[in-house]
């Protein structure tokens, strides 16, 4: 956490700074100069000096080799020393599938990651491992549509886009079903199972079996967010994150209704229950539970009235926050209290020991996410235009090399 008053955070930061300075001094800047033998020699020498295991030391080498390819992020880490080796290794591992020879791509990744990991406010919590990995994959999706970003090994190539299904029966008579789906489809299935379980009073497993064996099920709404003024911006599904082009095409084929969700930002409902439209706006703003560090998707959270409805608090987005059941209980028990900034949608948590922390919204309707989606849309358009120009240039060069000409007049204008 970014705090200069929390004594635990201050001591933790001293450890992080000391560790960063250690690795920054003793580890080589680029992994390319190391072969297997020299890595083994380096880890052996460092083991004698530090007592860290070989696995830990190799992790450090890989993490700092990747950091060397991201100069902006490296400069931020040099200044703040807020990223531990665990998070640096997540960055390194998730970026393995990036095209490290594409300098423009790496520069864009560097810029986006640096912005994401730059604290904007005091007492802001760092993203947890799931959020960090998801953000990096979202950046990669926006830059390269030729790679899978599910971070799963491609063992067996059944189906397309790593979608697989299998069933096995154990000797004890139990059966195991396994389905690997893209995140958007999996989220849609999970939403339907949970809605059916709640509607008919079943467990999740019973509801899944009931649906698979032919029950009509319960009507559910799965919201997909997309900027109306930026057709090239990526679509977003809570729980699945930003979608790839293939995922978006599959989800768009199922869309039955579209609406301007921004229109519900200031709408106030008459009763206590949050209408579907206002809930959709709140979920699109929050993305996940707003307790610092919690990663439960907003659609699976309750909509908490910051000022209780009984005390005059309106049922409106400005007074509603997504909280999972566990953290809603913490707030109800008065072990924590929060304020919602109406301008930035940042939630400031006040705890009973007089400490505090702030939580940034992660949904597609949050200010930072809107800017990122717009930037992604502009970048995609620019990449497509550049690719088209380069393709046209290559075609003209080939025609000229064959002596065919381009069919244009000498003044360079088309012949019409």
From TrEMBL:
HNH nuclease domain residues: 277-329
Q: Do you know which Pfam families this protein is assigned to?
A: HNH
Please name the CDD domains in this protein's record: HNHc (cd00085)
Q: Which GO terms describe its molecular function?
A: endonuclease activity; nucleic acid binding; zinc ion binding
Q: Where is the composition biased (Basic and acidic residues)?
A: 388-403
Instruction: Outline the segment boundaries, as ranges, of region: Disordered.
Output: 362-416
Supply the name of the protein: HNH nuclease domain-containing protein
- From what organism does this protein derive? Corynebacterium halotolerans YIM 70093 = DSM 44683
